[in-house]
């Protein structure tokens, strides 16, 4: 349940986590900005050298400038004892950056998404992502036969061992349930071209998934008849088909006199977010999962931040009416909190007696299930109930 240290992160093979070693417990901000600026996202990137550290010619050779970027879409014709028929597509396609932007004129989608690593108990950031649905890109390949899955990966220093790849089923890509959100190839973050560090020029964005499906520096797509995941994240015991978890993440508690302000961020995952609750008790030793105190806990509702003034939050020229998850005519969110985004919560505990305390926070989803129910394995997303300790003098 404790947050991840840099050493643990390295052991788990998570990636760079450059900033996380020092900033995993976030101070309670006086005001929290709804969107995270591209540079303030926590970075989770593999590679040696990391693709976003390349410059000059190396960057050009890597095809990571808007002028040199290309996406190759091909059939993967491999067969085996179970996959007996090979995938076939009308034609292989190579798409460049201007062609993708051109597709965007007709098909563009915009969407607010929290980026969250399956392995890290802190949200990485929240952005307004803009791009073209993957299904509209794949249509360029014409008719497809025997395609059951889409594999994709990014630039990886031309060293196959560094490849970071992910996959989706054909159905997930081509069909979107009402109210659900399509997978898309993003070329803008917060109204700007996607920075190299955030995976630009083009990054996959999989709305319902943890970060590892949202492949950065995207350059390759394969259409295959293989029905199995090939995700790099299936290694190290992770569940490669897990959905984003509904969960609360705590800031450090801010104590002022006899008052304690408890705050944090709640992610609305696949099961949605009804509300957040907090539980205050005198500080004690670590609570085991089977401690009777859990059953007697008094959980109290916390306040969720209300929708912000969208005009002041969104990049210039972006209307909420154009963002998926918002009503086309009123420009209001269809639900609050928004699907797959995060929202601040807070509670002020007033008039506390001097002493040491611990406070926990949990979400309740739209099924009425309290976090972490249905009880998940930690390798399907870090949604353990967090605790913060503080003292009132
Ligand atoms: N090409 C590539 N894409 C990648 C990764 C990577 O190492 N290489 N890391 C993934 C993981 S595990 C996460 S959590 C997110 C993090 O996105 P961010 O660095 O923009 O916060 O990127 C994903 N996309
Ligand atoms: Mo991740």
What's this model, at a glance?
With 393 residues, the chain is an alpha+beta fold.
What report would you give on this structure?
This is Oxidoreductase molybdopterin-binding domain-containing protein. It comes from Brevifollis gellanilyticus. Pfam families: Oxidored_molyb. The chain is an alpha+beta fold and 393 residues long. It folds into 2 domains: 6-34 and 244-392, Immunoglobulin-like, CATH 2.60.40; 38-236, Sulfite Oxidase, Chain A, domain 2 (Alpha-Beta Complex), CATH 3.90.420.10. The protein is 12% helix and 29% strand. The protein is built from 8 helices and 21 strands. The chain binds the ligand Nc1nc2c(c(=O)[nH]1)N[C@H]1C(S)=C(S)[C@@H](COP(=O)(O)O)O[C@H]1N2 and molybdenum atom. The ligand Nc1nc2c(c(=O)[nH]1)N[C@H]1C(S)=C(S)[C@@H](COP(=O)(O)O)O[C@H]1N2 binds next to loops.
Query: Major sheet, described briefly?
Result: 5 strands, mixed
Q: Spatial order of the strands in the main sheet?
A: 3-1-12-7-8
- Unreliable stretches (pLDDT < 50, length at least 5) are 1-24
Query: How does CATH name the architecture of the largest domain?
Result: Alpha-Beta Complex
Protein name: Oxidoreductase molybdopterin-binding domain-containing protein
GO molecular function, one term: molybdopterin cofactor binding
Domain Oxidoreductase molybdopterin-binding: 65-229
Organism: Brevifollis gellanilyticus
